[in-house]
Amino acid sequence: MLLTVKHTTRYVFDGKVTHGLQRLRLKPKSTHGQEVVDWRMELTGARQEAAYDDQHFNHVDLVSIVPGVPEVVVTCEGTVRTIDNNGITGPHTGLMPLWCFLRPTPLTRPGAKVRQMLASIEADRSDVLGFLHVLSGRIAEQVEYVSGTTDAHTTAEQALAAGKGVCQDHAHIFIAAGRLMDVPMRYVGGYLRMDGGDEQEAGHGWAEAHIPGLGWVGFDVSNAICPDERYIRVATGCDYGEAAPVTGIAIGAGETRLDVHLSVGENKVGAQQQQSASGGQQQVQGG
Amino acid sequence: MLGRAANGVFWMSRYLERAENTARLIDVGFHLALTRGNRQSQDEEWKSVLTTTGLLDDYCSKHVDFHGTQVFNYLLRDRDNPGSVLNMVENARTNARVVRTSLTNAVWETTNEGWMHLRDLLARPVRETSLGEVLTQIRRTGTLVRGAIEGTMLRNEVFNFSRIGTFIERADNTARILDVKYYVLLPSAAWVGSSLDNVQWDTLLRSVAGNRAYSWLNAGSMDPRGIARFLILDGQFPRSLIFSYEKIRSNMAGLAKEYGHEVPSHELLRNAGARLHQITIEEIFEGGLHEFLQDFIGKTIEIAGSIAADYRFSE
Amino acid sequence: MSAETGTNFDEMLNADGSVRPAYAEFRQWFDSQDKGWLRRQDAEAERFFRRIGITFNVYGDDAAEERLIPFDMIPRIITAREWRKLTRGIEQRVRALNAFLQDLYHRQEIIRSGRLPIEALRNNEAFLSQMIGFTPPGGVYTHIVGIDLVRTGPDDFMVLEDNARTPSGVSYMLENRETMMAMFPELFTKIPVRPVSDYPRRLARSLQACAPPAFKGEGGSRPVVAVLTPGIFNSAYFEHAFLADQMGAELVEGNDLRVVDGRVCMRTTTGYKAIDVIYRRVDDDYLDPLSFNPNSQLGIAGIFDVYRSGGITIANAPGTGIADDKAIYSYMPEIVQFYTGEKPILQNVPTWRCSEADSLGYVLDNLADLVVKEVHGSGGYGMLIGPTSSKKEIADFEVKLRAKPSNYIAQPTLSLSTVPIFQKEGLAPRHVDLRPFVLVSPDGIDITPGGLTRVALKKGSLVVNSSQGGGTKDSWVLDE
Questions:
Q1: Could you say which of C107, C302, C308 has the minimum Cβ distance to residue A21?
Q2: Is residue C246 part of a domain?
Q3: What distance in Å separates residue B141's CA from the closest CA in chain C?
Q4: Domain that holds residue C239
Q5: What is the pLDDT of residue A274?
Q6: Average pLDDT of the residues in C75-84
Q7: Which of A205, A124, A194, A200 is nearest to A170 (CA)?
Q8: What is the ipTM of this complex?
Q9: Interface chains of chain A (3 or more CB pairs under 8 Å)
Q10: Which other chains touch chain B, taking contact as 3+ CB pairs less than 8 Å apart?
Q11: How many A×C Cβ pairs under 8 Å?
Q12: Do C290 and A21 touch (CB under 8 A)?
């Protein structure tokens, strides 16, 4: 599938920013199952300071906010060719040792709730893949998809206790529980083309588990499926914090308003765009 | 040099200068109180010292009367008093630690030793009998540090920021002292030849260490206009407003030369300095001495703020 | 002279009371001096230190409280032969430490080979995954290392601890020598002592040799070095200022710095100026609020991004703490062997890892004879010295140990060597250790002759930490 992405993030500041930095992980890479055909990023009100690949091989841009600007706009536009691999991203590459994906992180440190939920699942634990599917279903059941009740700092344990959350919380709970079973787990941030139009509410997040023989396998708990060709992987990390699209500081910003505009369209080569045939596909939700 | 370091040497010098001026005010208050028979006028003198240092309100929130020992202990060593000599010398020393690498060993050591000595002297309440020793030590610390700066520091930006701090503070202090007592210089209030006025004038001159210099220049005769001219416009007297501004100007010129360009503060200072050079004492009295001093104090604060901004003292 | 019973190695005296060759000339000089004059010199030394402001702040005390580390005027003397051997051992160990760090943050061959269990890293916060895949400029991780050595016999030096984060104390090494030379100049004309005073210059040169890719050296300029301090309330502030001053480097705080044009720059009176190498005396966790502790006021937002993209050198590199972790320490013999292919020249102190059931059992049975340390602790806090502890202290400690065994290691109580200190009544032996300072750059490993000798001033005490009442001595390495 050829997907075209246009992702605009706009920060509007109430105050006068005297010094501000943003760390952006917004550039997808060509990996197993996806090929970045073209990609560009445009900055308004900010300028590039540094660029590098981090420990997860994510492309990172550090940009500074031009002092005094009323707003910063980051626009990413590009085309990515994807294939459906049944959620399998393949063997582990890079220098991050697999055991690093077993370490609990601040957002995924399991507490009593996560342990309890995990213990209550009656399924064959020797079939890791099968068990993770059951786990995924259980989390979706226990944690209702409700936006606005959690934020970027909500931990897996908190979201599970509240019984409400978004895709990021689903992923964190899944990661926390998976690591308790000694399965290396990681967070994936990216895009999902949802059925029913190009316009998306927000970027998406899901999880990947490392399963012997298969390598990394994706699980989208919120949508109860393994990622397919509608998913674009942008960044991975041990939790959301390491894969966040934007983190930063802005001194003097005061109240900051955030507007995100995201469209993920299907680019049918050589044909005029049609309403997508939703066939047997499930309804999915982003966020 | 770092903006923070410039800020550090600037304030180190300001605090030392202010500590020294406070010591002098206490000295004068003490002398006056000795010459006053009744308790009430003694208290008035001490109250006036507190007014000059701008600490009257703070003091009154803690104490109900103006007994001399209580006042000078408050001014010298009260930890709650941000303007106490002990706190200021400590601030100066803390700033010196912050900018340790910009100072010569001699400057650091004299500042550190001065602080150690005063901390010991001021560890217990000061009695009238030991007041003299304490005040001498405070003045000596200021003198030694200035001497060390003069004798050992390169004539570079560090030196210039330090001197600018000293003379901004001195200009401000002299103007404040004058402003609190300006009424004793007004012609309408003058009882010519009255011994009370002579004492008041003498006090004023003593407060800025100018009594002997003034007497020497004027062969012992005192008149309010002459005193005002001396304190404001006499370019020879090292605590006059014009002298302080002249020093600020020359040190600011040093910075412009070293950095190769001027900053907005230079223009501000030029305008304020030109006014001091043009005005006569008659014009000052015509426009109102108090108004003149208030305007001068405001200008000095503005210049200090502008220097801090131009040279990036803080973010 | 009071003699201590026991089997401690006395560095000055032979068992029969005769003076060892290393101290022969010094002792001769000492015995010929007027004792009253020596006492006056001793008092003078303290005044000297106070005046120049060599103090340290003790955590937990009133921040304004500045203490002086007591200085003892009897030097600790090491012969040329002893030093030669030590140098070889230290160099080997420091080479291994850097190779180990390079490996840990890349392919982790040592784990793949099974020489180091994953558990040693897995729950270890000193291991910074952010460093994975990144090679610091010049390939140097630990630009400055302090190796803590103890001596138990004529030829027995052992490593007690490696300090690979931000070892402190070098200013005392330098000031102690200055003081000795000022007090007893004639000693240095009689005895050939190797100088230490060029340490700051070597440090500057060593740091400059690790300039980042962004440094272009236009017009023959040299890399700009700055010392990053947490500020005047830090216990080692004096040292930070001292080193900056001696190196001719700026002493900066986090709020002096920001990222400008892809570089870390300091705010000067005339604008922002780029720094090439930052010698930071701020812990990893506080270095960059964007990358580590978000509440840090001491660091610089974005410095880590600039670092990874080649805009600055951070010394020591973030993540080096893993190499001086006490849990890792117990594997140092294997680590040295693995990376150098040689047998370790310097021995470790035998160490029981309480995380291992067998070791824990042994430690619990022998608490009264052992020294038990917290794995991540420093400064002599949170440790148990069995032989000098009361029954109750041991029992209390046992509760803590049983609750979290993996948090502790145990070592035998060593019979540390002694060197005399000067007292009113004469000389008295006290336990010492030695921290030599090592500089690492692409040009090689540079060890300053001697280092800092810390001495337990209390009779019989084995704790030499300055925060626990220890003092320091000038340390002499005799020239050939």
A1: C302
A2: yes
A3: 14
A4: 21-349+414-477
A5: 47
A6: 96
A7: A205
A8: 0.91
A9: C
A10: C
A11: 76
A12: yes
A170 closest CA partner among A195, A192, A149, A142: A142
Domains parsed from chain A with CATH numbers: 2-266 (3.10.620.30)
Per the domain annotation, does C5 fall within a domain? no
User: C19 touching B, CB under 8 A?
Assistant: no
* Location of structure tokens 């912050």: B98
- How distant is the Cα of A188 from the closest Cα of chain C, in angstroms? 17
CB contact under 8 A, A249 and C301: yes
CATH label of the domain that carries residue C365: 3.30.1490.270
* Domain presence at residue C2: no
What would the two tokens of residue C397 be?
Answer: 């400690």
Neighbours of B286 (CB within 10 A): 10
Between C195 and C460, the more confident residue is C195
Q: Average pLDDT in the C267-285 region?
A: 96
Taking only the tens place, the pLDDT of each residue in C110-160 is: 999 999 999 888 878 889 999 999 999 999 999 999 999 999 999 899 999
d(CA C232, nearest CA chain B) in Å: 6
Beta strands in chain A, from DSSP E residues, in sequence order: 2-13, 19-27, 34-44, 46-53, 59-65, 71-82, 88-90, 144-145, 164-165, 185-192, 199-200, 204-211, 215-219, 231-237, 246-251, 256-266
pLDDT digits (tens, 9 = 90+) for A212-222: 999 999 999 99
Taking the Cβ of residue B295 and every Cβ of chain C, the question of whether any pair is shorter than 8 Å is answered with no
| Window 54-113 of C, Cβ < 8 Å to B | 64
Arithmetic mean of pLDDT, B252-268: 97
Q: Judge whether B6 is closer than 8 Å to chain C, CB to CB.
A: yes
Q: What is the pLDDT of residue C55?
A: 60
Q: Does C259 touch chain B (CB under 8 A)?
A: no
Residues 161-190 in B contacting C (C-alpha not used; CB under 8 Å): 161
CB proximity C116 to B under 8 Å:
no
